[in-house]
Amino acid sequence: MTSSSSTLASPRPEADRRRWFALAIVMTAAFMDLVDVTIVNVAIPSIQRDEGASFSHIQWITAGYALAFAAGLITGGRLGDIYGRKRLFLIGIGGFTLASALCGFAVNPDMLVASRILQGAMAALMVPQVLSIVHATFPAHERGKVFGMFGAIVGLGAVSGPILGALLTEWNLFGLEWRPIFLINLPVGIAGLILGRKFITESKAPHALKLDLVGVVLVTLGLLMLLYPLTRGRELGWPTWGYVVMAGALVVFAALVAYEKRKAARDGSPLVELSLFKVKSFAAGIAVQTVFGVGLGIFFLVWTLYMQVGLGWSVLRAGLTGVPFSIAVSAAAGMSVQMLVPRFGRKVLQAGALIMAAGVLIYIWEAERYGMSIASWQMALPLVVMGAGMGLIVAPLTDAILSEVPREHSGSASGLINTVQQMGNALGLGLVSVVFFGSMSDHLSRPEVGPAFVDAFQNALIWVAVVMTAIFLLMFALPKRPAQHVEGAETAGTPGITPLDKAPELVG
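^ thats the sequence. predicted structure below, dont judge the formating
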């Protein structure tokens, strides 16, 4: 498909087998991003020990990635709409691979933090294209299956990350200590770059769009003003300027909305497609995604610190302890879209929130009952329950959010989905300072560390349970069933769904 004539004669998306190869490639990239996050969480204590990294460095190794990721996702999604999703995906995966190499060869904690920020920025170009390519390539009736696969990949990434991170750290390959957790991205990234060039079909918005530079500045500034004080607040003693800057972020976001409305009316090329928020399923799903990100941001970091620092477990034991959780996520996500949502609709997602909350409460009870003597097998029950709940949410939620989004705005929508998830995640990481470290004394003797971490872990889990309850209530705003599961939803008359014969031009 190299000539213009062959482009016009190319088969429609549902008849093009190449789309399944493209799906495998973009899913691998999403898998690489997910594994990278979970690998880093497992290796944090090792990095702290081997590099002499401070708690500030540790927060920035995780939150710096999330900040750069969140700040760039909307722009990355829109760049894909304008210049081509394949092109931006390849640039992103190439940059992500290079940044992974820089992380792996970092000579000090400061270089590692800077490389992680670059890695997050490159992921912001790569990740929005995953959902955009899927949304623009697959017809509505196939997207449920695809998002079910995506949910399973999320679970598989969660399975592989902790185990792989634990093994690579324990093995100390070639005396590189924790560095292989980043260097492993190199062969995967290079393969994705080569195969992506061959199999991914280019797609972009059907109408010429321009990059909204003012919107880029405003959205990036607003996100940084909101997230930076949260990330550094505890370390700096919660200074007054931090609250002022966060309040100023709300002013910036208000200015962004006003500007984007004028921009849309003037030339139809806003960075943030505000009309998407008129789609009820999208607006409600975005709210759920944001709050869900907060809960996950809190849980995963404090869980790692609890096991490795509080309980004194090895990185391998901590990684293997998480396997039941990850398997449950993968299994529940894989069947939720395919089997459960078509029959029960949003009740599946609401059940997931309640099940996850129940798992959190069981975990709190066990942490209190067993204290420092808790065993990995005793954590299996709450982790399986929590994983099953999370699996029932992750795949159907993406499906529900995108189900009524016009294809020409799939890049903008995907960027927003990923942005609010990462913004919630960064908010959660920032709140760790309050809900976890804030409940501990700054000066603990060695014997006091373990019990203090156990108590702080329980305190943080109470907040996670509250978040899950809030998500359950927010889900009442979701449509009872995603559009593609409603009879007749794939017809041309369905609001928000672009018929296949009017899909954006696909350029081979």
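The CA atoms of residues 226 and 246 lie 5 Å apart.
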